[in-house]
Design goal:
This protein is of the alpha/beta class. It folds into two domains: 98 residues, 3-Layer(aba) Sandwich (Rossmann fold); 99 residues, Putative methyltransferase TM0872, insert domain (DNA polymerase, domain 1, Orthogonal Bundle). Helices cover 35% and strands 9% of the residues. The protein has a four-stranded parallel β-sheet with strand order 3-2-1-4, with helices on one face. Strand 2, helix 3 and strand 3 form a beta-alpha-beta unit. Helix 7 runs antiparallel to helix 8.
Length: 211
C-alpha cells in the first residue's frame, strides 16, 4: 500500500520551483512522494528527477508510485547533505530546483514501529535511517546526565533539559531498568511530545525525544 502524504502547499512548491518538461529536480526528503508525484508530472517528458530519503520505506514507496512517469528517475537511500556526491555519481553538474520538506513523515508517526509517537507502545528506536547503528534507546541509557541535558537543551530547545535528564537517570538507577519504549513502565519520563529528531551525518542517525 502506498504511503500517505498530502502536501499542504503543493501549488506554491510547483510555482516557485517552476517545474517544466525536460528540467532536473531534486526532492531531498521524499517521504510519501506526494511532492515527488506532482514534480514528476510537471517535468515529464524528458525530465530528470532525483529523490533522496534516509528512510528505506520511502525509497521503496517511491519506486512503486513514480514508475509510470516518462522521465529519468534516480533514487538514493541517504541524507540530502550528500547531494553533491549523488550528483557526481550521475554526472550532473547543475539542477533546476531542490525541495526539502523537513520533518517527520506521517508514515513514521503512524506505522513505522520506531517509537516516533507516544500514542503507541513501540521500541525506543527513532532512527530515520534503520541502517544506522545508534538508537534513541542506546543514547538514553548510555549517556550521562550532563550529556543528556546538553542534547535536550541544544537540539531540542527544551527549557527543562536539566530536570528531564536528572529524572530519567534517577528512575533508571532506582528501578535498575533500561528505558526501552515509548509507553509503559520502561518508557521515557518526559512531557508527551517529540522534541528532537537529530540527524547525524558520518556517525549515523538517531532520534532524541522528550516530553
Amino acid at each position: 500500500m502506498p504511503l500517505k502524504h498530502i502536501p499542504v502547499m503543493m501549488s506554491e512548491v510547483l510555482n516557485y520551483l517552476d517545474c517544466r518538461p525536460g528540467k532536473v529536480y531534486v526532492d531531498g526528503t521524499l517521504g510519501g512522494s506526494g511532492h515527488a508525484r506532482a514534480i514528476c508530472s510537471k517535468i515529464s517528458p524528458g525530465g530528470v528527477f532525483i529523490g533522496i530519503d534516509q528512510d528505506i520505506d520511502a525509497i521503496k514507496n517511491a519506486k512503486d508510485v513514480l514508475g509510470s512517469f516518462d522521465l529519468t528517475i534516480r533514487l538514493f537511500h541517504g541524507n540530502f547533505i550528500d547531494l553533491p556526491e549523488f550528483l557526481r555519481q550521475l554526472n550532473i553538474k547543475a539542477v533546476d530546483g531542490i525541495l526539502l520538506d523537513l520533518g517527520i513523515s506521517l508514515h513514521q508517526i503512524e506505522s513505522s514501529g520506531r517509537g516516533f509517537s507516544f500514542l503507541r507502545d513501540e521500541p525506543l528506536d527513532m532512527r530515520m535511517n534503520k541502517m544506522s547503528g545508534i538508537t534513541a534507546e542506546d543514547l538514553i541509557n548510555t549517556m550521562d546526565e550532563k550529556n543528556l541535558k546538553k542534547i535536550f537543551r541544544e537540539y531540542g530547545e527544551e527549557r527543562w533539559a536539566g530536570p528531564i535528564a536528572k529524572k530519567n537517570r534517577s528512575i533508571e538507577k532506582a528501578k535498575g531498568d533500561k528505558i526501552q519504549q515509548t509507553t509503559g513502565s520502561n518508557r521515557m519520563r518526559c512531557r508527551p511530545k517529540i522534541i528532537i529528531i537529530s540527524s547525524k551525518n558520518s556517525s549515523g542517525n538517531a532520534g532524541i525525544y522528550g516530553n
